[in-house]
Amino acid sequence: MKILMVCLGNICRSPMAEGVMKQVAEDHGLAHVFVDSCGFESYHLGDAPDKRAVKACKNHQIDISNQRQRLFKVSDFDIFDYIFVMDSNNYNDVRRMARNEQDMKKVDYLLNVVYPNSNKAVPDPYYGSDDGFENAFLLIEKACKQFAKEKLLVQQKKD
Ligand code: 4NP
Fold first, then answer.
1. Which long-range contacts (C-beta less than 8 Å, at least 24 apart) are formed by 76-81?
2. How far is ligand 1, taken at its centre, from the CA of residue 36, in Å?
3. N or C: which end of the chain has fewer CB within 10 A?
4. How sure is the predictor about 156, in pLDDT bands with cuts at 50, 70 and 90?
5. The predicted structure's pLDDT at residue 29
6. Which residues are catalytic?
Protein backbone atom coordinates (compact mmCIF):
# COMPACT_ATOMS: atom_id res chain seq x y z
CA MET A 1 0.00 0.00 0.00
CA LYS A 2 1.28 3.46 -0.94
CA ILE A 3 0.33 6.58 0.99
CA LEU A 4 1.09 10.19 0.04
CA MET A 5 0.87 13.05 2.56
CA VAL A 6 0.25 16.49 1.05
CA CYS A 7 0.41 20.03 2.42
CA LEU A 8 1.36 23.45 1.04
CA GLY A 9 5.04 23.80 1.81
CA ASN A 10 6.04 20.15 2.39
CA ILE A 11 8.33 21.33 5.18
CA CYS A 12 5.98 21.22 8.20
CA ARG A 13 2.79 19.12 8.28
CA SER A 14 3.22 16.57 5.49
CA PRO A 15 6.82 15.67 6.47
CA MET A 16 5.58 15.09 10.02
CA ALA A 17 2.71 12.99 8.63
CA GLU A 18 5.16 10.98 6.50
CA GLY A 19 7.38 10.35 9.51
CA VAL A 20 4.50 9.40 11.78
CA MET A 21 2.82 7.07 9.26
CA LYS A 22 6.13 5.31 8.62
CA GLN A 23 6.66 4.89 12.36
CA VAL A 24 3.14 3.61 12.92
CA ALA A 25 3.56 1.10 10.05
CA GLU A 26 6.88 -0.03 11.49
CA ASP A 27 5.38 -0.37 14.98
CA HIS A 28 2.80 -2.72 13.48
CA GLY A 29 5.46 -4.66 11.54
CA LEU A 30 3.95 -3.56 8.22
CA ALA A 31 6.80 -3.81 5.74
CA HIS A 32 4.54 -3.44 2.68
CA VAL A 33 3.64 0.19 3.40
CA PHE A 34 5.35 2.94 1.38
CA VAL A 35 4.90 6.53 2.55
CA ASP A 36 5.97 9.78 0.90
CA SER A 37 5.05 13.47 1.15
CA CYS A 38 4.98 16.53 -1.10
CA GLY A 39 3.62 20.06 -1.44
CA PHE A 40 2.56 22.75 -3.85
CA GLU A 41 4.86 25.62 -2.91
CA SER A 42 8.36 25.66 -4.42
CA TYR A 43 10.03 28.15 -2.03
CA HIS A 44 11.72 25.31 -0.18
CA LEU A 45 12.37 22.89 -3.05
CA GLY A 46 14.89 20.23 -2.02
CA ASP A 47 15.08 21.54 1.55
CA ALA A 48 14.96 19.50 4.74
CA PRO A 49 11.83 19.94 6.89
CA ASP A 50 11.45 23.05 9.08
CA LYS A 51 13.61 22.77 12.23
CA ARG A 52 10.51 23.06 14.41
CA ALA A 53 8.88 20.11 12.64
CA VAL A 54 12.07 18.08 13.03
CA LYS A 55 12.13 18.95 16.74
CA ALA A 56 8.45 18.15 17.31
CA CYS A 57 8.98 14.71 15.76
CA LYS A 58 12.25 14.16 17.61
CA ASN A 59 10.39 14.82 20.87
CA HIS A 60 8.35 11.76 19.94
CA GLN A 61 11.38 9.66 18.86
CA ILE A 62 10.78 10.12 15.14
CA ASP A 63 13.58 11.35 12.87
CA ILE A 64 12.40 13.23 9.77
CA SER A 65 15.62 15.17 9.12
CA ASN A 66 16.52 13.18 6.00
CA GLN A 67 13.35 14.10 4.12
CA ARG A 68 13.59 16.56 1.21
CA GLN A 69 10.91 18.86 -0.16
CA ARG A 70 9.27 17.98 -3.46
CA LEU A 71 6.24 19.12 -5.40
CA PHE A 72 3.08 17.16 -6.13
CA LYS A 73 2.97 15.74 -9.65
CA VAL A 74 0.15 14.25 -11.74
CA SER A 75 1.85 10.84 -11.81
CA ASP A 76 1.35 10.68 -8.02
CA PHE A 77 -2.27 9.81 -8.80
CA ASP A 78 -1.00 6.65 -10.55
CA ILE A 79 1.50 5.66 -7.88
CA PHE A 80 -0.38 6.16 -4.62
CA ASP A 81 -3.41 4.36 -3.18
CA TYR A 82 -4.20 7.07 -0.63
CA ILE A 83 -3.49 10.79 -0.95
CA PHE A 84 -4.07 12.62 2.33
CA VAL A 85 -4.29 16.42 2.46
CA MET A 86 -4.01 18.61 5.54
CA ASP A 87 -6.51 21.34 4.67
CA SER A 88 -8.97 22.65 2.08
CA ASN A 89 -6.30 24.63 0.18
CA ASN A 90 -4.32 21.44 -0.33
CA TYR A 91 -7.52 19.63 -1.35
CA ASN A 92 -8.27 22.25 -3.99
CA ASP A 93 -4.66 22.22 -5.21
CA VAL A 94 -4.80 18.44 -5.68
CA ARG A 95 -8.23 18.67 -7.33
CA ARG A 96 -6.88 21.13 -9.90
CA MET A 97 -4.30 18.51 -10.94
CA ALA A 98 -6.77 15.59 -11.06
CA ARG A 99 -7.51 14.20 -14.53
CA ASN A 100 -10.79 12.54 -13.58
CA GLU A 101 -13.06 11.40 -10.75
CA GLN A 102 -11.02 8.22 -10.34
CA ASP A 103 -7.98 10.31 -9.33
CA MET A 104 -10.04 12.19 -6.73
CA LYS A 105 -11.34 8.94 -5.19
CA LYS A 106 -7.88 8.51 -3.68
CA VAL A 107 -7.88 11.93 -2.05
CA ASP A 108 -9.15 12.75 1.43
CA TYR A 109 -8.48 14.99 4.39
CA LEU A 110 -6.17 13.21 6.85
CA LEU A 111 -8.42 14.12 9.78
CA ASN A 112 -11.44 12.53 8.07
CA VAL A 113 -9.90 9.25 9.26
CA VAL A 114 -10.75 10.33 12.82
CA TYR A 115 -13.67 12.70 12.17
CA PRO A 116 -15.40 11.26 9.07
CA ASN A 117 -16.71 13.75 6.51
CA SER A 118 -15.80 16.73 8.70
CA ASN A 119 -13.05 18.04 6.39
CA LYS A 120 -11.23 19.38 9.46
CA ALA A 121 -7.81 20.90 8.87
CA VAL A 122 -4.49 20.13 10.47
CA PRO A 123 -3.76 23.82 11.16
CA ASP A 124 -0.66 25.20 9.41
CA PRO A 125 1.91 25.81 12.17
CA TYR A 126 4.44 27.61 9.92
CA TYR A 127 3.75 31.16 11.14
CA GLY A 128 3.10 30.18 14.76
CA SER A 129 4.99 28.92 17.80
CA ASP A 130 6.38 25.51 18.74
CA ASP A 131 3.00 24.70 20.33
CA GLY A 132 1.45 24.67 16.87
CA PHE A 133 3.88 21.97 15.77
CA GLU A 134 3.12 19.81 18.80
CA ASN A 135 -0.61 20.31 18.19
CA ALA A 136 -0.21 19.33 14.54
CA PHE A 137 1.88 16.32 15.53
CA LEU A 138 -0.78 15.04 17.94
CA LEU A 139 -3.59 15.44 15.39
CA ILE A 140 -1.51 13.69 12.73
CA GLU A 141 -0.54 10.89 15.11
CA LYS A 142 -4.15 10.27 16.08
CA ALA A 143 -5.18 9.96 12.43
CA CYS A 144 -2.24 7.74 11.46
CA LYS A 145 -2.85 5.35 14.35
CA GLN A 146 -6.53 5.13 13.48
CA PHE A 147 -5.71 4.55 9.80
CA ALA A 148 -3.31 1.75 10.74
CA LYS A 149 -6.02 0.08 12.80
CA GLU A 150 -8.73 0.43 10.16
CA LYS A 151 -6.86 -0.02 6.90
CA LEU A 152 -3.28 -1.19 7.22
CA LEU A 153 -3.94 -4.12 9.54
CA VAL A 154 -7.01 -5.17 7.56
CA GLN A 155 -5.02 -4.99 4.32
CA GLN A 156 -2.23 -7.06 5.88
CA LYS A 157 -4.68 -9.85 6.70
CA LYS A 158 -5.71 -9.93 3.01
CA ASP A 159 -2.09 -10.08 1.74
P1 4NP B 1 3.32 23.31 5.53
O2 4NP B 1 3.62 24.79 6.09
O3 4NP B 1 2.34 23.47 4.39
O4 4NP B 1 2.73 22.59 6.68
O5 4NP B 1 4.66 22.74 5.07
C6 4NP B 1 4.12 25.80 5.25
C7 4NP B 1 5.47 25.93 5.09
C8 4NP B 1 5.99 26.92 4.27
C9 4NP B 1 5.14 27.78 3.62
C10 4NP B 1 3.77 27.65 3.78
C11 4NP B 1 3.26 26.64 4.59
N12 4NP B 1 5.67 28.81 2.80
O13 4NP B 1 4.87 29.56 2.23
O14 4NP B 1 6.88 28.94 2.68
1. 76/4, 76/38, 77/103, 77/106, 79/2, 79/4, 80/2, 80/3, 80/4, 80/36, 80/106, 81/1, 81/2, 81/3, 81/106
2. 17
3. C
4. low
5. 87
6. 7, 13, 124
Question: Are the CB atoms for 45 and 88 separated by under 8 Å?
Answer: no
Report the pLDDT averaged over residues 34-47: 97
For the Cβ of 10 lying below 6 angstroms from any atom of ligand 1, the answer is yes
Q: Which of 11, 24, 3, 34 is nearest to 136 (CA)?
A: 11
Closest by CA to 85, choosing from 14, 9, 141, 2, is 14
pLDDT, tens digit (0-9, with 9 covering 90-100), for 92-112: 999 999 999 999 999 999 999
Q: Is the C-alpha dihedral spanning 77, 105, 11, 63 positive or negative?
A: negative
Give the C-alpha separation, 41 to 10, whole Å.
8
pLDDT at residue number 159: 62
Ligand 1 probe mutation, 124, 133, 134, 139, most atoms within 8 A of CB: 124
Q: CA-to-CA distance for 134 and 56, rounded, in angstroms?
A: 6
pLDDT at 31 > cutoff 70: yes
